[in-house]
Sequence to fold (349 residues):
Amino acid sequence: MEIGISTFLETTPDPKTGEVMSHAERLRNAVEEIVLADQVGLDVYGIGEHHRADYAGTAPAVVLAAAAAMTKNIRLTSAVTVLSSDDPVRVYQAFSTLDGISNGRAEIMAGRGSFVESFPLFGYSLEDYDELFEENLELLLAIRESEKVTWRGGHRPAINNLGVYPRSVQSPLPVWIASGGNAQSAVRAGMLGLPIAFAIIGGMPESFAPLVALYKEAAVRAGHDPSKLQIATHSHGFVSDTTEQAAESFFAPTQAQMNVIGRERGWGQSYNRATFDAARSLRGALYVGDPEYVAEKILLLRKNLGISRFFLHVNVGTMPHREVLRAIELLGTKVAPIVRKEIARLEAK
Fold:
């Protein structure tokens, strides 16, 4: 069971002061977070790609590479790479470079993107949203399998027996499929035998069980060994010394950012404290609390979905850097040991 951190490198206004952290400061803070996460024994750190003012994560591989040379064990991944609007050759090159710097700790988490600002920025049409992802994923997997590539698609110039370098240390370079709960994505990942990461940011996590079953069924039909499948989840949350402290620290920045996104997407109802408190209940999708409570929720998630990796998304809106570092420290030194010890006990039965 791997436990780690995911982030979009938020630079949202402080809900109390209105101050906005600069992108440069947030990027430097991220490197410090990764180094600490490695030191406290966390397994993975992921940065999501976005191209908007309230997130600094436009180039995850660059940020991860900055921390790669300062860390020893932690795996470094995108969370996610918006593959539909990127060039698979450049994606592979960026992450194989990261793989070399980190000596084999890089991963790619590929998704279609729940935010679509990258499409007009890079000149792609949203009408091609699904087709772009399918073609680009096909090319990315071809590149990681073979040094010389011959490929032709409908949206990118063809490649005729050309080499793509540098080659990754890992063979193959890990590629995960990221999904927000789309059945088609689960089936695609299963058929390809690729690991999958589900973003669970609302409702009850146990409701994703049918998607996990679809994923496994598709993998078996395609001839893949179900025992080798990897399943991750990504959920918002925060860890403090007490559950009350975690809730008070996390609510205001979460509410502010969720209301921004809600207005953009026409959700209608505002995000309020009652919604927040319901979501941080034992069966809810918010992992907010003291180490023992967060560990209990992760163990329930593993029981219900059979996950092999859990990402705690810290944080949803901008929070004081010292509090974020404390949450990472607690996740590594308190939460992860509780989870691992209980899993070992259950597996020894």
